[in-house]
Amino acid sequence: MASWTPSSAVIPTLILLLSLPLLFFFLGPKILSPRQITISLPEELDDLSLFHKAIAMDTSNFSTHRRHRLPSAKSHLTTTLRRPKIAFLFLTNSQLHFSPLWELFFSNVSLKQYNIYIHADPLVKIPPFQGIFKNKLIPSKRTQRSSPTLISAARRLLATAMLDDPSNAYFALISQHCIPIHSFNYFYNFLFDLGRLSATDFEFSSYIEILDSEPTLPDRYNARGKNVMLPEVSFDEFRVGSQFFVLTRKHALMVIKDRKLWRKFKLPCLNLDSCYPEEHYFPTLLSMQDPSKCSHYTLTSVNWTDSVNGHPHTYHPAELSPQLIHRLRESNSSYSHMFARKFSPDCLNPLMDMADSVIFKD
């Protein structure tokens, strides 16, 4: 039997030391990157139950409206939606730092013109919501960046709002970092401007960014693996856009009815650097199903000039001024931006000081 000597352990030790860099190279990203949250079957079934209820109620209401349709398309619209409402859907994983500003936004506005719904990650400790946000929290589930859980949360908000009030005609998805940059009345009158409807087309449009020529499009398309999106979504059909949108009830219904595209977009990503499911799913779905009634532009202003790790520029108090608010309202379309992001929490007081004289002075 060979006897052990110190030199006999040298070679295995050297091999181990030399192999460590290789192990780190291949396994490091998986070890260092956060584990993606998966959507369990019970969670999926729970959401499907909610969606089915909302779809059934909407179908029933639509059948009732058809039986009482008036000859004039515009008259029918105004009769069907005698008091159309905007559902504000707040998607957050922290407290709503700008709730006092939103309180001013909704002040002196009839409750018959809007509803509020909040989806907050249940594993994050958030102080109880107060004021108009009290009791507005919907049954929520965990969310995580670069995962399909953000799609699920938005669909959950849409379905809840549709089921809660048939008068919700528009659905505005908002983040905790968003602020209003126009008054409520300005926003409301813009959305429900009958002058933009023709005698033959009485459908309002949704305001969602839909982009098809971004340089990162191939990487985003293949984030789950090469050609994994086929056959449901070809590369030519794949679109990207802003996470935050304002959808009509018709398009909200399309979103919660969808099963085909969801089967692909709920798959976990292999390349997290190019994976933003919530920025891909909604633009792709609506572009494939009803592109002519989508503006292809967002109503939320975002500054991407110096983005960091996929996050847009964050405004701080030193940057705030009336000129900034006016600049944020400017858009590439014929209409103004209605919201803006992203703002640090300490911007609240300066924004409150400008609220009446600048922000809500249209």
UniProtKB/TrEMBL annotation:
Subcellular location, principal: membrane
Keywords: Glycoprotein, Glycosyltransferase, Membrane, Transferase, Transmembrane, Transmembrane helix
GO cellular component: membrane
Protein's UniProt keywords contain Glycoprotein: yes
GO molecular function: glycosyltransferase activity
Superkingdom to which the source organism belongs: Eukaryota
Subcellular location: Membrane
A matching Pfam family: Branch
Membrane topology recorded in Swiss-Prot or TrEMBL: Single-pass type II membrane protein
Membrane-spanning ranges: 6-27
Protein name: Uncharacterized protein
Organism: Penstemon smallii
